[in-house]
Amino acid sequence: MTSDTENDAPVVRTARRGTLLIWLLAAAMAGLAGLIAAPAVLDDPGSAAPDLRWFALLPLFALAEIVVVHLPTQRNAHGHTLREIPAVLGLTFLAPQQYVSVYVVGAVLGLVVAARMRGVKLAFNAAMFALEAALGAVTYHAILQGGDPLSPTGWLAVLVAVLVTDLMSAGAVTAGISLTEGVFDGEILREALRSGSVAAFINTCVALLVATLVLVQPSALPLLGVVVVLLVLAYRVYISLARGHARTRLLYRFVDRTSSARSVEEVVEVVLREAADLMYSERSYLVEVLDEQQVRYQAFSGDTVHAEVLELGAEPWWWRALDAGVAQHEAPRHGHDEAPEHPVAPALTSAPRDGLAAQLRGTGSARYLLVVCDRSFDQETFGDEDVQVFEALAAHAGVAIERARIVSDLQTLAGELKTARDTAVAVSEAKSMFLANMSHEVRTPLTTVLAAGELLNETPLDEDQLKLLGRMHRSGEMLLSLVENLLDFSRIDAGHATLHHAAFDLRAMVADVVDAHEPRAQAEGITLDCVVDPRVPGVVVGDRTRIVQVLTNLTGNALKFTPEGGRVWLDVRPVEDDGDGGPGVRFAVSDTGIGIDEDHQASIFTAFSQVDGSATRRYEGTGLGLAICKQLTELMGGVITVAGELGVGSTFEVRLPLVESEPTPPPGGGTTRSPSGRPPG
């Protein structure tokens, strides 16, 4: 098991490297600011001394920074500043040397007082302020050239100086955040340029109004305080709306990315990354509670996701979310010194600066918690609005993870079913091939045995030998019929059966089937009749051999299950008589035999099926005949059905889409055959 400390080692190295780079960036900006301001200081050292105007603007710079610190701007605080107001006044009324010093001292004082900032963050901001002030002063005086500050040239100089200052600020903040996080974040720069430019323009216009009033009508300055207060309130409203819009956009992105994720692992990674981004937190966890002492968690920190199993000692702060729904933690903030400038995120079991935890719903029997820790900006912690957003985030995360798990299970099941299907197909093909091969192998010697029996029957034999030879012949015929049925069944089941469409005489075919079974019917004392409706076409197109095979099986089956004195008849008529529509011929083979009850009619066409076990013992056969009839009928595009009543008889109907062949022979009237001379009943 890997500890949190080992997992955080890369984060520690990244934080230390980021701190060193921030120090180097601060030194570079401070050096560049010194190079820009040094010539003016060397030319006139006395002009850098503070005077009354310097001390008057110092609290304005500090107050502007304090207001910005307490605006709910989150990570984009650099995009909304109020330093433009004292900056315009400083450019208008102070020497360049005084302007740079009051800009830096006032802004730094505001950060120390409002944010208790120190260490590398304070050094970075101080160097950035110095470079901003130096570039702004050089730009302003280069354009103004000693002209009137309130002239159009002066206004242009102020606007350009403020623009240069804001570009400098946006670039420095983007570089600092990118060095801290180890990756360039272009969104920060775009946000600063988009919203910061608008704010800078408004602030500059207000500052020009203040400068004008100072020079023209100083007594009206108190009224300007109302404008400043309204401006601050407008900033708060605007920033609140901007935050709501940003959160809505992030929630839509969260839903879209979790919906498009293809696996549980992808969904979990999206949930962790998007939760950290949406809640502006430095780390996020997805915790699965295994039992009261053990959890499995996946953590997002330092732009990486890792998973571990953790043994719990005392209950951590986020454990309350299992009962409370949402648990919130907030530790006192004591300012910022050197150690926590880039703090190593605490372990899952230790208390963070602040955090939120919520139980995921809709995850079945599993218990999951979504945890975010450590707000990524200094002054603001999680509020009521954050709790509501986080609760909605956790609810959707639970649904997304459960959906991904179900999809993953279904994909696994589909793979298993495909494997099982492929195995079943292979087994079926092997079975069909085995039956076909065995049928061929058995039929060859069996035919030889039957032929030898026929030859033996032509020799002088006594009565006992004739009886034995007769039994051998009957058994051989049964075995040959079984082999033929097995061969047909395996060929049809494997999809190797073919149809041959040709024109044939339907009435002659029916007569041949009846003639072939008439000797057996007479020998068993059964009446065999046949009726062909005169409307049935004489010549049709179809597979005569397969139709004969079906009718032969059905007729032989009817004779086998009909006792002596019973009757079997074959009825042939057009399909249109049944109201089914369309061309076709209906063949019905009926008998007065043992019949079939309704419970067995559904399974009668199943291979190797008989009505019951006693019938299997009493009547010889394997149950393949009807299965072959069904397969052949469906192969020819027809249907076969059965109806009957136990002890009364049964009727098998075959409907085939036989089409009349041209030219049609002249109708010869209906053909009715009754070997017994009696009308069919």
Automatic annotation (TrEMBL):
Name the SUPFAM superfamilies for this protein: ATPase domain of HSP90 chaperone/DNA topoisomerase II/histidine kinase, GAF domain-like, Homodimeric domain of signal transducing histidine kinase
* UniProt cross-references to PROSITE patterns, sorted A to Z: HIS_KIN (PS50109)
Q: Coiled-coil regions in this chain?
A: none
Q: Where are the transmembrane segments?
A: 20-42, 93-115, 122-143, 155-180, 192-214, 220-239
State if Nucleus is listed as a keyword. Answer: no
Q: Please report the stretch or stretches of sequence annotated as the Histidine kinase domain.
A: 437-660
The Swiss-Prot or TrEMBL record annotates one GO molecular function as: protein histidine kinase activity
* Positions of the UniProt region annotated as Disordered: 658-681
Q: Which domain of life is it from?
A: Bacteria
Annotated localization: Cell membrane
Keywords attached to this Swiss-Prot or TrEMBL record, sorted alphabetically, are:
Kinase, Membrane, Phosphoprotein, Transferase, Transmembrane, Transmembrane helix, Two-component regulatory system
- Pfam families this protein is in? GAF_2 (PF13185), HATPase_c (PF02518), HisKA (PF00512)
* InterPro entries per UniProt: GAF, GAF-like_dom_sf, HATPase_C_sf, HATPase_dom, His_kinase_dom, HisK_dim/P_dom, HisK_dim/P_sf, Sig_transdc_His_kin-like_C
Q: Which reaction does it catalyse?
A: ATP + protein L-histidine = ADP + protein N-phospho-L-histidine
Enzyme nomenclature, EC number:
2.7.13.3
Q: Where is the composition biased (Low complexity)?
A: 672-681
Cleaved signal peptide residues: none
Recorded protein name is histidine kinase
**Source organism of the structure:** Nocardioides aquaticus
